[in-house]
């Protein structure tokens, strides 16, 4: 069980073999059909890309692709973690609209390239938001923060830096975790292993397993931690458990890499949700933090995020930053200006910041109220099973415990879209759609026990 190898990315040779096998099995039926129907089939067959097989859709973003193709009026997308209003519509926060209006009206604003590390104000304010306004690490200039392409880009830049400059090339990620972690760290060249996290029978934290697996990790290994609102399980350690994790990790010189994609979404409070990170920074040790503004500011498609690396001294931090620039420059040169300008404006202005926290709390509260509504709806239907985890879990998702067969049934019969691991995005639900979901779950668990 300890530190099991997550399946490594296939080698080019493996991929070719799989591709050939699939082709022989005829599973590339879509390709074959389109080739047969096309008058240019002869030249298409001679393409230099003939060997390219169709890749599967992404396990999360592919759910939206399937949803978009469904013509049913009752269809419901609970796949991707994206906030929806009670009317089922995407939400642009009022404070974000206001900031954008001010940016547009300010004719002195230009579209010049940002520096490689991004907008200076944005970086400074992002570090304070996650580490605390009075963080000694920030005050001592021991933190380098670079603006990146949302949470994913921040994780990837951090991973590339570690692959180049860190002595230990093994990273432990929780089992289960957000599906992209394995790919991000694996493709950066790190060796990815897992630590036990979730206990399916209690639907809670497997704390003993977690301590055992981190306890037997090699000294110096990197450990990916979800700062709050663990995706997909909705299960977080308690503050006491965090303290034990911190002590164990520091005693073994394990390097913490926090993924903070949901600050403010777990408790509704930005400071409370940052507490686990601040515990690690308070002990003076080093730590990585990838921040995303996709969910908490609703800036999904603007791709705004930051990577902060907390170092032992200002001198190390500035050398680390110089190397981060060498990672970023050949990857995308420098980050986009619009989203970061919105964030910087909101974080800088006391009134706007206040307005943001109120809107953020309202989103978190609506999600919590959906938990209660879904739980009540299942109870009133007498749906077999203990569904209390729906109200106990935290953040954007409920890890329902439904299996892939039950999920497929709900999609086919009820047009409800979710990831095959049984995760539902509570933020995609509304009072109007809860009964439909409850009917579907009830049918799935009674027919496919
Ligand atoms: N970390 C976690 C834990 C996470 O759930 C997401 C997104 C990200 C990072 C990256 O988000 P970004 O948009 O790059 O800031 N998760 C949702 C969307 C996705 O899969 O891309 C999701 O799980 O539905």
From TrEMBL:
Gene Ontology BP annotations: amino acid metabolic process
Residue span, Aminotransferase class I/classII large domain: 75-441
Cofactor: pyridoxal 5'-phosphate
Keywords assigned: Aminotransferase, Pyridoxal phosphate, Transferase
Reactions performed catalytically: L-aspartate + 2-oxoglutarate = oxaloacetate + L-glutamate
Gene Ontology molecular function, alphabetical: L-aspartate:2-oxoglutarate aminotransferase activity; pyridoxal phosphate binding
Record's signal peptide: none
An annotated GO cellular component: mitochondrion
PROSITE patterns in the record: AA_TRANSFER_CLASS_1 (PS00105)
InterPro entries the UniProt entry points to: Aminotransferase_I/II_large, Asp_trans, NHTrfase_class1_PyrdxlP-BS, PyrdxlP-dep_Trfase, PyrdxlP-dep_Trfase_major, PyrdxlP-dep_Trfase_small
SUPFAM superfamilies: PLP-dependent transferases
EC number: 2.6.1.1
Superkingdom of the source species: Eukaryota
Subunit record text: Homodimer.
Family per record: Belongs to the class-I pyridoxal-phosphate-dependent aminotransferase family.
Further comment: In eukaryotes there are cytoplasmic, mitochondrial and chloroplastic isozymes.
Protein name, as recorded: Aspartate aminotransferase
